[in-house]
Design brief:
With 279 residues, the chain is of the alpha/beta class. It has ten helices and ten strands. Helix 4 crosses helix 6 and helix 6 runs parallel beside helix 10. It binds 3,4-dihydroxybenzoic acid and fe (iii) ion.
Length: 279
């Protein structure tokens, strides 16, 4: 049987990709940020998942504001990546797992999550930056299932809806009859706002509380409305709903095997969490 072996959160900002291309790992601006990923990579090296479900948002590459699915899952053999304007180099396509994708899609639709299904899907920084932080793009040792969540065109799905989607996702994976180790990535966040008068807004207190509650009391975060999130985490901080989707796919009790918070990186508060199921 397949198993959800863990959940990871990470920022996905494009600047990370450019910093990696320039190998700025020891640069004073980047050092502490990149150090936050070392324990996560060590954990992945031990656990060796076969598949990563990457919960991310498309920022205008595969879809634009004229047409955007609330939830969309990839069911492709591989996923090409493109840069939608950040100067990022193209990385080798990432292999998919269409069989598991279709199994999960069918299970989600049967559980009242009528998501879009994509046999072709181009992925961008929201998906690819997290992957390249954890694995080697020159020889991807992982297959992916991208799960795109609309966080750019309002109305976006609620925190509670995303948490419930995660629950249905976790159940679908654990019912899959093949032996597969699956890790769930919740990308984006933490607090940030890229536009308007509050551009550059970061809320450390909110972020640290969100991280604690995501581990121990995720249900309480499902009361947050989109307005609460925009007010407290910024207009792009709403990406945190994808962290809740990841958390929903985990069991009720989890252990945080790694936790790192760093501000600012580009315009964003960056948090890394590595969670394991404890029951
Ligand atoms: C930044 C943050 C994002 O979430 C994103 O999608 C693009 C850029 C930033 O902080 O620069
Ligand atoms: Fe983003």
């Amino acid at each position: 049987m397949a198993k959800v072996v863990g959940g990871i959160t990470t920022s996905h900002i494009p600047a990370i990709g450019n910093a990696m291309a320039r190998e700025l790992y020891d640069d004073p601006y980047w050092k502490e940020f990149f150090e936050g990923y070392i324990p996560a990579r060590e954990w992945l090296g031990k656990v060796k998942p076969d598949v990563a479900v990457v919960i991310y948002n498309d920022h205008g590459l595969n879809w634009f504001l004229d047409e955007i699915p609330t939830f969309a899952m990839g069911a492709a053999k591989e996923y090409k990546n493109l840069d939608e304007g950040w100067g990022l180099s193209q990385l080798p396509p990432v292999p998919g797992d269409p069989e598991l994708s279709w199994y999960v899609i069918e299970s989600l639709v049967n559980n009242e999550f009528d998501l879009s299904m994509c046999q072709e899907m181009v992925v961008e920084h929201g998906c690819v930056i997290p992957l390249s932080l954890f694995w080697d793009p020159n020889n991807w040792p992982i297959k992916i299932i991208p799960l795109a969540v609309n966080t750019v065109q309002h109305p976006i799905p609620s925190a509670r809806r995303c948490y419930k989607l995660g629950k249905a996702l976790g159940q679908a994976i654990e019912n899959y009859p093949e032996d597969q180790k699956v890790v769930i990535l919740g990308t984006g966040g933490m607090s940030h706002q890229l536009q308007g008068e509050r551009a550059g807004f970061i809320n450390r207190e909110f972020d640290l509380d969100f991280m604690d509650r995501l581990v121990d009391d995720p249900e309480s975060l499902t009361d947050l409305t989109t307005t609460d999130l925009v007010r407290d985490a910024g207009s792009e901080g709403v990406e945190l709903i994808m962290w809740l989707a990841m958390r929903g796919a985990m069991k009720d009790k989890v252990t945080a095997v790694h936790k790192h918070y760093h501000i600012p990186i580009s315009n964003t508060a960056a948090g890394v969490l590595v969670l394991e199921n404890s029951d």
